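RESIDUES AND SHAPES:
===
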Amino acid sequence: LQVLAYNRHTYGTVAQRLVITIIPAPDGEPPYQGEFLVSNRNVEELLPASVQEMFLQAMAGVWEQDDLHVINITSVLDRGGRVPLPIEGLKEGVYVKVGSHGAFSPCLVSAASPQSRFRCSLGQQPLASCYDTFAPHFAIHWCNLTLLQVLPSPTVPGQVRGSGVLEEGGDFQPPTEATPQDLLPGYLVTLLVPLAVAALLCLLLGHLMCCRREGV
């Protein structure tokens, strides 16, 4: 990945090549995933590892699990959000997706329940039965909480492919035999129908020009 940046004041540019190595998780994708909206942070403020560790420590008090890790960090602007006003302390907001192999806590389940969604639609506080351990560092918008349980996809056995090289002395056998088709009816329809229409038009035009004249 090549990152190109420029200075807004001097318009100077600098390029840096960033090598990213993607390694699959040893335990696979976590089956329990939750996405939280942090309204008092920008996306670059949650990229440092120390800030993510502090966020996970606060998350452990709500989720009640120890194997939490950050899966994705997305700015609210990438989800259709508006650019914040140039006011001191006003942030754009960040979506943080966290995964775990442990089930959701009763607090998270109640906060994402239909009753809690209904209270949010009325402008009331959601049903969060636990103590908010994120405050005061992270302001969580609980009405935007999304809980997802990822089920493992069943493995479908694929087709066994050969080497692609025809063995010596063997004949190529097509996978399916083409059935013979009679193309004469289609050829006649394609040829005779336009000729019949053209002949009818000629007869109609001749009748109008020759037999409909005055005095005839």
